[in-house]
Each structure stands twice: as structure tokens, then as C-alpha cells.
Amino acid sequence: MISVDQFTNYLKEESHVETLKLAVVDLELKIGIDRRDLGDYDGRDVVLPKHREAAPWLPVVLQSGLIIGDPQILGDITASGFDIVVTKGFFSDSRTNRKEWEDLKRRASLARIASLTGRPVSELNRVLADNLVLEYGTNIGGKIEQFGLERTKIVLKLPVDCGGDTRRLSVL
Q: Exposure pattern of 133-144 as b/e (b: 16+ CB <10 Å)?
């Protein structure tokens, strides 16, 4: 776990950009006795905007132990710009398996791409399901093999305008 400032500084080094696939923000929500003090929303109000400024392509997952159960908390965080919202138990439960983790990463990536492109997630899923046949010569074949054929197909299916940002979106 790193601080927001450490994250921002980490991203300033171009070589680090390619290593990041997902960020997880833990909101320390605490319900006060009189229910007016719903806790610390710095993850939503400070951390998330800094993430978006430094790495707009990076999916951000919100986790908290108090996500479930309180409608006021859910209302305060649901539309706040996180790509996926999960309970803290998702990461600490030994029953969370690799398939669930891969599904979470995929859904977060699709939500981020949808947010950046204005395309609905359902459309992105449909485009990804389409079969794409590539024909290429030997000169480019080495580059495609280096990157991976399936990842290359995904990039070709999901062109994204990142507003001139030369850094790339994480490929599903």
C-alpha cells in the first residue's frame, strides 16, 4: 500500500507506467453514533481525483468494510467515479478465487474504457466477443508475437482516444 503522493511520484517515472494494471482505494468509512458522521471520504474526494489526474487510464477499485448494509453510505459512494466497488472481504476472503479476481480486473478495465470513450460496457463486451482475423507479414509478426496476439486483437478492437496522453490503457 502506498500514499497518494507516492503513487503520483511513481507515475512520473515513465518506466513505471507500463507496470500498473489496477489501483485499489480503501475507504475508511465509519458510522458515527448520531449517523451524521459517515467517516472518511478522502479516498473519494482526494485520492480518486489525484489518481484520475495522474493516470486517467488506470482502473480504480473502491473497497471498504462498510460498503454493504447502509443505504446512505452506498448512495454517497456509488456514483463517485470508481470503476468497481467491492467489500473489503473480497480481498481478504480465502474463498475469492483466481477466476473472480480476473473477472474483477476485466470489469474494472471495461468500466474505465467505457468512461474514457463514452461507449457502454455492453457494447465493449460485444466488440470483444467478435472474432478478429489478422493477416500480417513476417516483419510485423515479431512485434505482434512480442506483445501477444490476443492482446493485439483487443487493442485493435477497442481504439481509445486518451486526449493526447501517450501512455496506454491497460489491456484486458
A: eeeeeeeeeeee
**pLDDT of amino acid 59:** 92
Ordered mean pLDDT values, 10 residues apiece, the chain (172 residues): 74 72 76 52 77 85 70 61 83 84 90 87 87 82 84 74 45 48
Which is nearest to 103 in space by CA: 69, 53, 57, 59?
59
The strand pairing partners of 87, in sequence order, are: 64
In angstroms, the CA 45 to CA 84 distance is 16
With 0-12 / 13-18 / 19 or more C-beta atoms within 10 angstroms meaning exposed / middle / buried, residue 69 is exposed
Give the pLDDT score at 72. 61
* Helix, strand, coil in percent for the chain, rounding step 5: 50, 10, 40
d(CA 71, CA 67): 9
**Among candidates 170, 124, 119, 154, which has minimal Cα distance to 17?**
170
pTM: 0.69
d(CA 172, CA 164): 21
Nearest residue to 88 via CA among 45, 35, 28, 42: 28
